[in-house]
Structures are given as C-alpha cells and as structure tokens.
Specification:
alpha/beta, seven-stranded mixed β-sheet
C-alpha cells in the first residue's frame, strides 16, 4: 500500500515546473501566500490554440491554488485593435471553461504610465529621439557589438519634457519622434539598449477615443500593469525571457518613484516562462493568420482549417479535447513542434465519449432490397451513444430502397473484403442481414444500383439475428432522409513546419485542404441537430452541423476521422 508521504511525492512529480515554482513560493510564504495570475492578450486578432496553452496554465494555476486569474487586454496599439477581437477573446475563454476574476485593460493605466514616463524624463532616465526607426535600429548594434548612442541622448530635461508633451498632441507627426529609456547601449541584452517606450499613433483607441496621441510600448506597459494589479506570478512564453530583466528594471524604477526603494524586491511579480505550443502543418503567427483572412485564402478567422479556437469550435472540436491535449503535452523550457495527430487523437478520444451516433451516407449508391414488401416501413431502434447509456436511443426508418456507401460494395472483392459483394451476407446496422444478388451498371461500367435480399428472421433483437456475419454496413432510407453538404478538411499547409521554410508561406498552402461533397444523405434524426452538437457519422468519422446550416440546406463539417489514416498515408 502506498503511504501518504509516497502519494504526495508522486503528486509532486506529476506537477509541471510552473506548478512546482508556485508551490515552493507558497511554502516559503512569498506574496503573503497569495496567488494572482493574469492572461494578457492583445486584442489584435482571434485566439488560437497556442493562446489556449497560456490560458490553461494562467487560469489553471489560480484555480488549483485558490487564487484568482484576471483577464487583461494589452491594448496599447490602437492601429491594430478593436472591440471585435475583445468580444471574441471573452467568448473563447468562457468556451474553454475558464472564468476570470476581473477584466482589466492596459488603457486603464494610461495616465499612470504617462506620469511614470514624465518622472523618468525628470530623473534623466528617458529622452526624446527624433531619428527614423531605421536609424535607431542601425545604431543598436549587434549582440556582440555595442550600440552607438543617439545624438539626442543627452538632450536637456526641459526640452525632453516639452517634446514629450508635444508628442501627445494631434499636430504631432507619426514617426517624427519617440521616447526612449536611457539605459545601456553596450548591454549584451539588446532590449536594454535604450528601448523605445512611447510612440505617436493617431488612430482612435477602441476605449479612450482620441484622448491620447502617444501610446506606451508593450515592454513599458506590461510589467507595470502586472504591478498595478498585484500580480504574483507573471506566466508567459519563452520568447519573453530576454525581456525579463527589462520588466524588472522598469518595476524597480516604478517602486523608487513611489518611495518604495527600501523594499524593492517585495511583491514584485514572479516571472515564469514556458514553451510555446507549435503544431505541424499550420502557423501560429497572428500576422500570417491575419494575412490568410484578409487575402481570402481562408473563409475567415473561424475557417475550420485555422488553428484559431473559433475555427476549431466550428469544425467540431470540444473544449475538453483541447484542454486534454494541452495537458498531455505539458509545459517545459524547451520549444517543440507537436504533431497535429496528437491533437486529433485527443479530439477523437473525447468525442468518442460524447458524440451522438447517426447514420449518414456521403458517397451514395442505391441499394434495393428486392424481397422487402413495397410501401412497408419499419422503425429500427438505434443507440445514441454506446459509451453513455443515459443518452438513450432514437429510431431510424427502414424501407425497400436505401442509400449505402459506394465504397462498401465491390463486385470482384479480395478475400478479406468483409463488406457487400455478390453472394455474401452482411448486416445492415440496426436492421436485417442481407445478401447481395446482383448489381446494375451504366454504359461506362459504373455501378448505379445494387440488389440484395433480406432475411426476415434476422432483424436486430430477433433470434435469427444471432447468426454471425463478418460485415456491418450503415445506410439511410431514400424516402426518409435529408440531402446534405459535407465539408472535408485536410492540413492547411503542405509542409510539416511552414514557419521554418524560407519561401513565402502562401506558397506552402495545401490546395486540397478543403473538399465539398454535395450529394450526401443523413437520417432525419441527424437533420435536427444544431451547430455545437457533436455527431458521429457511423463508420465514417466525427462531424458537426456547420453555422451555414439552414432548414433548407444541411451542412456538416468533418471534425476528425475514426482513425488516424492521414499520418499513415503521409509516411508512405
């Protein structure tokens, strides 16, 4: 028997390194044993699955240790931000199953940040630079070569103040001047080489309108916002590791301004960096995703091929499957490229437990039961979900004339073909055992109709139904089904890691990533399902009604197949 001490040890080992840091901080009494995290998206695009990984750890840590996670929009660049993105972010987080303590905005702190910048100028720690962005970039040097000081670096304080106030007027010209922190142009960390902390933008802000014309840079607003809110653990991805010292330096100055210099290390947010989530055959760059949308290379942010949460939701991914996938890959300090098949396996595993089973035929051929009475119909009982008895059953209508999958028939079949072939018996799911007796072809040799006879004693549930046959096929009644459009999706890109390729990422798009089948048929029970309801088309895969569905036109998205056939094909 495992004792309590061994159990606690095993639980400790199962924790991510982030959780271990938090536990250690709590044990040492840091931040008064208080946990407060935040998820700080910039509202300049829709969230993707990479953001979901950050959401899971930010909200998950707070939830696990009795703390609070706030949502803060880092809205410091009005030229790229709008309320559409704000609303979508709020919805996506809720859809994933998380709840924030408070909603904040970096724009809530614009006055405090402005006052801090003024204080830095007065302390000789910031100056106005009127060089072009190209000149500033050139003078920053390289990681192995010190930068060259700006000719404006030693400008008088009063002149800097006057120009800074001028930056915040409608007359100021965008790009004509910036405010830079005066740090160290020889520091090996390039972020310390007099970083820009304010620039001029005249685009109206989605919350503050035209009140401001000068806006703080992300590095100047982010850490201070954490500090203003009382964040204890600032959890972010590895690309922010070089920004870490700058984050601390600005907070140190902020504490000095507030007269807290003697307690400079107290209640400073603890920064923890983890690896980003990267997936094969897609991109996570907001810039590239935005280009795909704006150039109509996809149908929108919620295109089911996109890695966005709204795209995955529309395709039929469940929030639980995304969370389970993120938990399975974990959090480390090393970047990795995760195989899309791992995500699809998590989706498949979750949908197997929750999807309602229905009958649908996506490549139809007519099947006539020749000895079944004309005009007779029967309601066959179908189990909604064998994984959950509480989901109950529904009925599907059986008749003489049916649709079946064309791939389920072969006139001259190999030995291990256990579907329909002349002379062999198969079971029609939830109905009877039938034997194929013949088929009809057109002038080109294409099968147009299959004829079979049924055994009246073999209905599912009857004594004769116990006779074993090697194949079971799905079907729908021609007169009791609905026509539907089915959309099939493949990888958005042709190469495993498009971000690593040197060519234009647009050249790597998979031309076969989207296919429409417009002559499909589904049983009536499936026709009543709505977007957001998870379905399994029996023997085909998992599907969801699309947002384009109307009473007159049924549209279904294929979420994922029953098996991972794609990776097997790709490895040949």
């Amino acid at each position: 028997m495992v004792n309590n001490e061994e159990k606690r040890s095993d639980e400790k080992k199962s924790l991510s390194f982030v959780e271990q840091i938090v536990e250690n901080d709590l044990a040492e009494g840091k931040n008064a044993k208080r946990i407060q995290t935040r998820f700080p998206p910039e509202p300049n695009g829709y969230l993707h699955i990479g953001h979901a990984k950050a959401i899971c750890i930010d909200f998950g840590v707070a939830e696990q240790y009795g703390g609070v996670c706030n949502l803060r929009f880092d809205d410091t660049n009005p030229s790229k931000e709008n309320t559409e993105y704000v609303d979508s972010i709020l919805y996506d987080i809720s859809w994933l199953g998380f709840h924030w303590g408070n909603v904040y905005y970096a724009s809530d702190y614009f006055q405090q940040l402005w006052d801090f910048a003024v204080w830095m100028i007065k302390q000789g720690k910031a100056y106005i630079d009127e060089q072009t962005s190209e000149q500033i970039a050139e003078q920053k040097g390289t990681p192995t070569q010190a930068g060259t000081p700006s000719p404006y670096r030693d400008r008088p304080i009063e002149e800097n103040l006057e120009l800074f106030y001028r930056m915040n007027t409608p007359e100021a010209v965008e790009g004509s001047m910036v405010l830079r922190a005066k740090l160290d142009m020889a520091n090996p960390n390039m972020h310390f080489r007099d970083p820009i902390i304010y620039r001029i933008i005249h685009t109206p802000h989605h919350r503050t309108g035209t009140k401001w014309n000068a806006y703080p840079m992300y590095d100047f607003a982010h850490g201070q916002s954490d500090y203003f809110e009382g964040v204890t653990h600032s959890i972010c991805t590895l690309e922010f590791v070089p920004h870490h010292p700058l984050y601390d330096a600005f907070i140190d100055d902020l504490k000095i301004m507030n007269g807290e210099g003697d307690n400079i290390n107290d209640f400073r947010p603890r920064q923890i960096e983890f690896n980003r989530l990267n997936l094969t055959y897609t991109v996570m760059s907001k810039r590239k995703l935005l280009a795909l949308v704006q150039e109509n290379l996809v149908s929108g942010w919620d295109d089911p091929r996109m890695p966005t949460l709204c795209g995955m939701r529309r395709r039929g991914y469940s929030p639980e499957s995304i969370r389970n996938f993120i938990k399975s890959i974990g959090y480390t300090k090393f970047d990795a490229l995760n195989d899309m098949s791992l995500l699809e396996a998590a989706v498949r595993d979750d949908l197997n437990r929750r999807a309602i089973r229905v009958s649908a035929v996506i490549n139809p051929v007519k099947l006539v039961i020749t000895n079944y009475p004309d005009g007779l119909t029967e309601d066959m009982e179908a189990v909604n979900n064998p994984e959950n008895e509480a989901d109950g059953t529904h009925t599907i209508t059986f008749s003489k004339n049916l649709w079946m999958e064309r791939e389920d028939f072969m006139e001259n079949a190999p030995k291990k073909f256990f579907r329909m072939t002349p002379g062999a018996e198969v079971r029609l799911k939830n109905a009877y055992i039938v034997k194929c007796i013949s088929c009809t072809k057109d002038a080109d040799g294409n099968i147009t109709e299959i004829q079979a006879e049924y055994d009246p004693t073999s209905k599912s549930g009857m004594e004769g139904a116990n006779r074993k046959v090697k194949g079971t096929l799905h079907w729908v009644s021609i007169d009791h089904c609905r026509k539907a459009e089915v959309r099939i999706y493949d990888r958005l890109f042709n190469v495993e890691n498009p971000s690593a390729e040197k060519c234009d990422f647009r050249e790597l798009l998979n031309p076969d990533s989207y296919k429409v089948l417009d002559n499909c048929f589904v049983e009536e029970y499936a026709a009543n399902k709505k977007p957001g309801e998870y379905l399994q088309f029996q023997r085909i895969g998992y599907f969801m009604p699309d947002l384009d569905t109307t009473p007159d036109k049924l549209v279904y998205n294929k979420t994922v197949g029953l098996k991972d056939t794609w990776s097997k094909i790709n490895k040949r």
